[in-house]
Amino acid sequence: MSTAALVISILLSMGSLAWDYNQAGFSRLAAFFLIFGLLWLLAQWRRWDWFSSLGLFVVVFGAAIGLWLEFSMAWMLASAAFALFAWDVTEFRRRLYSMIVDDYHRGMERRHIARVSLVILAGMLLTTVALVVQLQFTFEWGVFLVIIILLGMAQLVAWFRRQ
User: Fold this and answer.
1) pTM of whole model > 0.85?
2) Does residue 142 surpass a pLDDT of 60?
């Protein structure tokens, strides 16, 4: 379960960063972020947990540069938030699997991802409110929110089916 959340968060992080860089006309940097996202996914598959720290640094640095260049605050915030989520899930899994094996791993994973997902959702909600107040809400941001909501609902359905 944490693997699916990790993959989705990496894709959302790198996708939102690449989207805004591409919208601003920096297509080569957008391509770099997409390739870096694929490398990050490959690193997770190979269990190179250290790569998540590098990924978090690259995304936060890219988002900071994007904010400095006056790109959309919402897309930069979303990319940094989902990168932080991916890093957190990676570190949590690493610590969890270094513990003694017991039956509570799945439950601990589920509760941790649920708590962090609520924080991310609250951040996206506050960002959306800020966009609406500033009259900068776009169709693309709406589609992004719908995707996040659908993924969250799919996660809830999967959890309820297991219980």
Assistant:
1) no
2) yes
